[in-house]
Amino acid sequence: MAERMNMNMTMSAQGMHLERGQWTTEPVHTRIDGEKLIVQAEEGSDFWEETFYSFCHRNGHALLEPWDGLQAVEVSFDLASFTELYDQAGLMLWHGEREWIKAGVEVNDGIVHVGAVVTDQFSDWSLSPVPEWKGRMVTIRASYHQESVVIRARTDEHPWRTIRVARFAYPQDKQAGPFLCSPKRAGFEVAFTRWTCTPSDVDLHTDPPNHE
To answer: Which of 100, 150, 190, 194 has CA atoms 20 to 30 A from the CA of 23?
Structure first.
């Protein structure tokens, strides 16, 4: 795990826990722009464990803090910069290098997709095209219940949708926070606007409120 962020990250963006986070791998750079945290990913950065491609990538950028699961966690970010194959960002849930879930938005075949990679020794990948989300502000949310997580996503003008219910059977030593990766290009930046905890889901079939 990389060192804690060494800059003053108290910033004005509401709900950001940046002063407590640790990067799994340091990004190229970070900067504060008003109420946004701008992060640039390293070219070739990704998280993946073996499935289909027979390789491991463990150099993606996730800014993590302990997460006990008693509250849901949400991350919001701007899709304006998502233009190239595999540009991606969202919410990382972490137990270890081979036990994690990344949920978010990714460009695939020229179209913005929402999806998740669930990894328990090996990675899987589920995704769904959301071309209507292009250029929007997106929020990814995870709520923990009975050794599983319910992962939802929405934009600033689209309602919550459930994108995955996944096993995450780690009562202790969980971490969570924003992530980004850029497997194919240099210069990919993401503007994160929110990282916060909110009350857990009431029910699988009941949408949580919008907290922005």
So the answer is: 150
Domain 18-198, what fold? Jelly Rolls (2.60.120)
Six token digits for residue 158: 């689209």
Q: How far is CA 196 from CA 8, 14, 186, 199, in A?
A: 18, 8, 29, 10
Give tens-digit pLDDT for 179-208: 999 999 999 999 999 999 999 999 999 999
pTM above 0.90, yes or no: yes
- The contacts of residue 200 (CB under 8 Å, 6+ apart) are 70, 71, 72, 143, 144, 145
Amino acid letter at 59?
N
CB distance 152 to 117 below 8 Å:
no
Tokens describing residue 54: 């027979």
**What are the domain boundaries of the chain?**
18-198
> CA separation (Å) from 91 to 68, 72, 119, 160, 196?
15, 12, 14, 15, 11
